[in-house]
Amino acid sequence: MFATAKYESDDLRVSFVCQMERADYGVPRSPSWWEPVSETAEIDELEILGVSVDAAALPKDLRDAIYGLSVDLDWEGEIE
Predict the structure, then answer these.
(1) Which partner for 3 in 7, 46, 65, 75 could form a disulfide, CB atoms 3.0-4.6 Å apart?
(2) In terms of pTM, does the model score above 0.85?
(3) Is residue 80 part of a domain?
(4) 3-state helix vs strand vs coil in the chain, percent to 5
């Protein structure tokens, strides 16, 4: 399963896509939930100062900083 998350500020808008995995407490009948697999996060759309930007064209350090924005976002939806 895949999910999306968005980060928005005055200068930056980023849409991320990430693979999700089911997690639980590891004991029988424990509740389960979906968690993002952080190393699978990808930048789907990127807009800087109102201009669409190809994330692959950015320097690696800047791209890594943008990926870091996805860590605390709420992931939602399902993309099959």
Answers:
(1) 75
(2) no
(3) no
(4) 20, 50, 35
